[in-house]
Structures are given as structure tokens and as C-alpha cells.
Amino acid sequence: MSEAFQQILSPEGELAGEPPIEIEDARRLYRAMVGARLFDRMGTALQKQGRLATYAPFEGQEAAQVGSAAALRQEDWMVATYRDAAAMWLHGYPWKLLLLWRAGDERGNCPPEGVNVLPPSITVGAHMLHAVGLAWAARLQQQDRVAITYFGDGATSEGDFHEAMNFAGVYHLPVVFLCENNQYAISLRRDRQTAASTIAGKAQGYGFPGIAVDGNDLFAMSRATAEAIERARAGGGPTLIEALTYRLGPHTTSDDPGRYRAADEESEWRPRDPIERVRRYLAAEGAWTEAWQHTIEAEEAAEIEAAVEEAEALAPLRPAEIFGAMFAEMTPQLREQQRELAAAGEEGVEG
Ligand SMILES: Cc1ncc(C[n+]2csc(CCOP(=O)(O)OP(=O)(O)O)c2C)c(N)n1
Known about the structure:
Blueprint: H1 23-48, H2 62-69, E1 77-79, H3 85-90, H4 95-102, H5 126-140, E2 147-152, H6 159-170, E3 175-181, E4 184-185, E5 188-189, H7 190-193, E6 210-214, H8 218-233, E7 239-244, H9 263-269, H10 274-284, H11 290-313, H12 332-343
Parallel strand pairs: 1-2, 2-3, 3-7, 6-7
Antiparallel strand pairs: 4-5
Helix pairs in contact: 1-2, 1-10, 1-11, 2-8, 4-11, 5-6
């Protein structure tokens, strides 16, 4: 870990500074990371059984997502990607909908009322602009809301990244850009992605702070994001956070990382596991026992299994319904497509 990347909790679970959260919150977020990992492994298993389309695992990135998402208030917006299920779930997007979305069911794109999370974006980078738009709308409507957007190192090479960062900087908008630098964009290594020494450093060109953080450190992520959100809320403008982390699994269930990276790279990152280091810290504080671990694993697994059951028990989506999931009011183009399908005599389509 380079000196420049902020760290509070070492991989051994030792503190190098004041923890930004109370022990009860550390236990709550630890539990969330444990639950998220169970969901992630379930996602891969379900895909292999043919019950989901592709699945993009986030194992290794739990602290980057959970630590940052925990800093939001409910009214704040989150705009994230196909790999950010843990962050989205923590901000209120139910497991059931994340599963439906992964099964190609449009109902997974409709978060419950009051959950300010946009459906996951597959288009790399484009969603950063949506977050900027939401932050701008909040400003214009004088709402006390901040937007956060999650994206990978690869997304920083998209034109959308430049446009979003530039607009946010010029208009001084309440938005936090959270880059999960997991070292790869599918098979492309971080050092082929950009010649910049850090991704955080790119913020300088847009006139706002860029903070480099150990993304596998729950406490450092929690502190850096809370500070960025606070600054945005107080009118201090955007922040870019680079969370240095590692994708321990494949890009998706269709990918074989053995073709582009050495196996010992994964074994180098395993000891920096974001969950294990919080477990060590909690154990040293007398706030973790094996019995508690069994209890939380059983309870989180039961919730995930219930979500799988509920998602799979739904009546299949009728063709007519696929058009209504994206917008509050359907666009003329979607209405036209719906009419075309009806004219083709597709069962279940109202004309
Ligand atoms: C605009 C666009 N181009 C290409 C793709 C294909 N694609 C999907 S994920 C991905 C890599 C993205 O890498 P990164 O932004 O680092 O995020 P990560 O997958 O590592 O979380 C690519 C190229 C896409 N979905 N959208």
C-alpha cells in the first residue's frame, strides 16, 4: 500500500488512527459486508445453475462499497454499476430486485418508492452523467441532497467521465465520484488504462479534491466518503475518491481471469481481505465471537434465500410489461414498440 493512500485499519486489523465510527456501527457494517459476500457467492452459484444471466462478482470490494454507502442519508441519490450490489442494497435496493435485474426481468429496474437508487448501469461511464444531473436538479430545486456515483477504473477512460467531472466542477455540484479501482477493466490492467500515477489525481484538472483511499479499509472508506458528502452538502462542491481495491473473482461469470493475470496476484490480495481485517479488529475489541458469526451468517443467508424464492415465485413478465419499467411516462418510441409487438400478435400485449 502506497503511503499516499489513506488507511486507518491495517490488513492485520490494527488501528493507525481514530476509527471514524462507533463499535456498534462497525459491527453493523461488518455484518453488512458478510451478508453482501453471501449474496455475491449466491449470485455466481445461481448463474451457474442457469437461474441468472451473467453475474459480475464484487468479492474483495465490499469495504469500498459498504463503507462509502453508509455515509449517505436516505434522501441522497446513488447511481451505480452492475458490480455495485452491496452499495445499492445498503442504500435500500432490495436483494430481490437485484436478482430480478440479473435475470433480465425489467421489474428489477423499479426501486421501491423512497429508495433513491437508480437501476444498475451496464453502459460503462454513462451513468456518471445521471448522477451529475440529479445533483444539479437537487441544487435547482433547493433540496438538501447529495448524489454519489460508483464506477470502475476503466470508466475513467470514457468521454462521459470527462463530461461529468467537468460539469460538476464548473457548477460546483453536490456530487461524489467514487472510483473503485479494482485494477482491471475486464482483461485490461490499470497501467494500460491510464498513464496517470493515480486516478484520484485526475480531479485536479477539474478544480476539486481527489482523495486516494485504501478501498479495502472499511474505516478509511467510511471517513473519506463522510467528509466528501459533508463537503458537498455544505456547498463545497464535488470530490473524486479513488478506492484502491482488487476484484478477486472474474469480471463476470463469462470471464476467465486465468487468461490475463497470474494466479499468485490473487493470493497477494487475499490477505488484504476487507472483511477479515474488520473481524480481527472487532475480535481484539471483544466485539466478535464465533457464535455471533454463525448467527449473522445464518440470518443474512435466510434473507437472501427468501429473496431468491420471492423473485423466482413471480409470474413471468408479460411482453407488454417490459416497456413500462424505465420511465414514469413511457416515451413515444416505447409506445410505438409496444404497439408493434401487439400488432405481431404477441400474447399478453394490450394494443
Ligand atoms: C460504453 C461501454 N463500452 C464497453 C462495454 C463493455 N464492458 C462492460 S464492463 C467493461 C469494463 C469496465 O471496467 P471498469 O470500469 O474498470 O469496471 P469493473 O468492471 O472493473 O468494475 C466493459 C469494457 C460497456 N458495457 N459499455
